[in-house]
């Protein structure tokens, strides 16, 4: 009987255009659209900042040679035009108006400092809201400083190396996979959790509040099917919808990488391939399954209690923030899966998935996370059953 | 056969409900110790003004609601002890019954047949018979949401009868329907009677009651005010017609 109800409800749900959109179409399209946008914008930005011709304003005494040095820097780091300014006030004004991107101020004693082998101060102005301008200014100033240093060493007959007693090299021992897992691994479970929730939402409202509102529940309750069987049949569809939405999001990711070729970096592609292994996907769904039941179990009692579709929607929609917001914890690199975080629902799934991506997951902590979610899922089912069994809740 | 003895139902009122009903009572009695009997091959009519307890009574008979106390026997089965078994014998149709708009009549009837454990061979015979009787073949594969009210009512009838129930419960089945659609229901009720089924129905329309009923019961504020045969009711009438007599009985109960 549960399967008969499940089959009918699934057919009914898939024929609902709104549910179909949130369950299948949007999750499939989200990754290709977001990745396409991200790749397009970042490529465009890189291209633009590399080729953008910038204006550099300089306030300095006429005998200052730095202006010539600036002009002679090859345009490999981008085209530039050096303009002489009389005062810093107009220089700052023009930077604010974006007719000038970088401003350099050297006082009248600049050449004297160089001659006397003391430190010459230089003020560099830029607008932080213009992305990449500080980097360009730093690149120019590094070249000028290195030239000045080299010249001074020659004048003093000092070997440059003697002024550098220690040279440190920093070597990262974390694998690329670990790096991606720890730094960006939170995004993947966040998207799955968000879609898992949204995927459950419309079917839960439609199959419980909707049925009550349309007056179909009364006839269903007069059939010789037990209430828990009706609940399980319907709940099965709600859970499947959530999992289907998450699966469609994964399918969208696969299409972005394998069909639309949105990731071109070969090294990154190899890392992604090694992350998205069948064992990872299996482990991910093992964690998502009780989480989706938990989501369904939270939404169903609300959907049973609500008198109208609108009322149910107005309660469940804000709940989305309460449930999905903790998933953002995964974005912070410092937060790790431990015995405490493994006991916090949603957060434990996100952190476990992160560890899973990094390949550093502790089986004991995974067991705790899974057990906590299963326990919560069972509690949620029990609450749903209690609500569904209340006759005043199910009849309008 | 339906046998109801000392049926009693009370609902616990929430604080909001107490506010809405302007009462401090924590409980509301919907049905107060009523007893009656509906026999096979007869039509039993349950009359009462709005809020009298008719729908609650019929919902208890169809096992949607569990009585606070009392007994209900449906075709000899204790409906409180064995609700699943009792439901197999019941067909339930209300005026407010909704249908699954995204399914076709065919799919809907088959779904309910499965829920009632109807054998596949029986399903095909009964479905074909009902579809022919109600002239449903032309729209059997159209989505219910796209059907007219009359067509939907035919689908409801078909759904109610697909498991060949012995007891049929009609809760204001013609409310809100036009005369032509209502006529389908009237015909169904008559057919059920001629097939020897037990029929109980509630209605506000006195002409329907006069036309169909063998036995009549009047309830008001959960209490049974009158229960006898229709002929006896007519013999005892002290006013000129059914409607005024019904009003007279209800008003008399208010004065007592």
Could you explain the architecture of this structure?
The mean pLDDT of chain A is 85. Chain A has 396 residues and is mainly alpha-helical. Chain A folds into two domains: 253 residues, no CATH class; 110 residues, abc type-2 transporter like fold, CATH 3.40.1710. The two termini of chain A are 25 Å apart. Chain A is 67% helix and 5% strand. In chain A, helix 2 packs antiparallel against helix 8 and helix 7 packs antiparallel against helix 14. Chain A is elongated. With 256 residues, chain B is an alpha/beta fold. Chain B has a domain of 134 residues: 3-Layer(aba) Sandwich (Rossmann fold), CATH 3.40.50. Helix content of chain B is 40%, strand content 25%. In chain B, the strands form two sheets. In chain B, strands 6-7-8-3-9-10 form a six-stranded mixed sheet, with helices on both faces. In chain B, helix 6 packs parallel to helix 7. The longest helix of chain B has 16 residues. The two termini of chain B are 33 Å apart. The chains are: A mainly alpha (396), B alpha/beta (256).
**Count of discrete alpha- or pi-helical segments spanning 4 or more residues of chain B:** 10
Question: What characteristic shape of chain A results from the CA principal axes?
Answer: elongated
Mean pLDDT of chain A: 85
Count up the helices of chain A. 16
Strand content of chain B: 25-35%
Strand line-up across the major sheet of chain B: 6-7-8-3-9-10
CATH superfamily of one domain in chain B: P-loop containing nucleotide triphosphate hydrolases
In CATH, the topology of one domain in chain B is named Rossmann fold
Biggest β-sheet description of chain A: 4 strands, mixed
* Quaternary organisation: heterodimer
SS-based structural class of chain B? alpha/beta
What is the helix/strand order of chain A?
A: HHEHEHEHEHHHHHHHHHHH
Biggest β-sheet description of chain B = 6 strands, mixed
Give the proportion of residues in helices of chain A: 55-70%
Query: What's the level 1 CATH class of one domain in chain B?
Result: Alpha Beta
Supply Rg of chain B.
19 Å
Largest interface: A-B, 23 and 30 residues
